[in-house]
Hints:
Blueprint: H1 2-14, E1 18-23, E2 29-34, H2 36-46, E3 50-55, E4 72-77, E5 97-102, H3 108-121, E6 127-130, H4 137-144, E7 155-157, H5 168-173, E8 178-179
Parallel strand pairs: 3-4, 4-5, 5-6, 6-7, 7-8
Antiparallel strand pairs: 1-2
Pfam families: WHD_DRP
InterPro entries: Disease_R_plants, LRR_dom_sf, WHD_DRP
Keywords: Repeat
Amino acid sequence: MEIIGEEYFGILASQSFFQDFKKDDDDNIVRCKMHDIVHDFVQFLSQNECLSIEINGGEESSLNSLDGKVCHLMVNLGYNAASFPAVATGRLKRLYSLLIDGHNNIDNSSLIEFLQELFSESRCLRALDFGYPPESSDMIREILTNAEKLVHLRYLNLNGQSVETLPREILEYLRCTTTN
Length: 180
């Protein structure tokens, strides 16, 4: 299977689908970037189903302009982000995956409020990834104790968090196949 994948990658790379290759000492490609034209075309086809937003604070968040088609959302919290913006979570009812990444400079209560509202509105969420390092495991516990409506959640990434075990009441309703 890996050989077939390498063959397909080679074909796509030879036709300039990828650029800016980085190689290791053995001349193997370890990183590359999708060509800008290919990226723009894929974004056009997906019609904003996949969205990546950076929040730095001070500016009006583009989270408020979501159109309801977003299925996969990555929110990167910049150094200057003081709080998580208020968002109409009703526009995120079709959200399948959420990645929150960034820095620990924000007010945790605003993030907790957003996630609790999202969990009550969005029943489709299947993947939840906290790349964001919260100050304590208590915050993660507080968020997850209000996630009982996430019956479709299959992937929960708490990697890098200070959570060693989840409380029993959380484990009873989580149907995750993968937890990190």
